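Lay summary

Proteins are chains of building blocks that fold into shapes. Our project writes down both the chain and a compact code for its shape. Here are two examples, one after the other.
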Amino acid sequence: MQSLRLSYLLLGLALTFGPAAVYAQDAPKPTIKTVPVRPTQILDAKGMFREYCAVCHGDEGKGNGPAADALKKAPADLTQIARKNGGTFPKVRVMRVIDGADVIAAHGSRAMPVWGNIFRSLEGSSSESLRVNALMEYIGNLQAK
């Protein structure tokens, strides 16, 4: 009986005050502030992911990072790449997206930074390959089972 009263109370509050979206329209739209890239350890894939990717994709790669709401298109849920590819994680394709060689249609414009160029600017082309490969392996380990 108490849970029924609580349900009616919650329904009454919702009808009285309306949906939260009505009040949220006055809130400023989130924006993304670009900052200089901070170097991380070349083979610390988890640290690189947190530093470079998690702001959009979230710490667990599910597309729910703190900057996600400010983007025109939602960031990809990186844990679903293998599932969307018939159960196989496409290593080369993922590396090409990270590097910037391939653009994902769902991104629309190139909202995702071209990490290959950024990594080359940190230590040169040899470290770029190591960083891209380490990130690809890390994302591969995030795949939903």
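And here is the second example, written the same way.
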Amino acid sequence: MVRNMVNSLDFYIERLGFTIKHQWVPGEKIEWCWLQLDNAAIMLQEYRQSPPTEELGEGVSICFICEDALAIYSHIVSNGLPASEPLVGNNMWVVGVIDPDGYKIFFESATDVPEETMYSDWIKTNRAN
């Protein structure tokens, strides 16, 4: 559930690169949609009533397992969106962003790079070789 579909669509489509696969437009605006990025999909629905008063996204993380989290990281930062520096955890590159409702979104892809390697250190090492 999202508070403002326009803000969420800007984030997921313009900043992250998702496309709309299906949508529901009962009036003059999208109230529900299925967004796709390669083989990953997420559904968004805007509150019809007032959104809850507590903070949305508190304690929620959404993880997308993908082919190349570093390519997604490059796409994200090229669109001016703040993202965490990629690091290796659980044998995966992990890239994190926060959506307009405070949900933590992670893109993760398998790697053989050593655990806890930071992207900046990995780049330095690979450029030196």
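What can we say about the second shape? The chain has three helices and seven strands.
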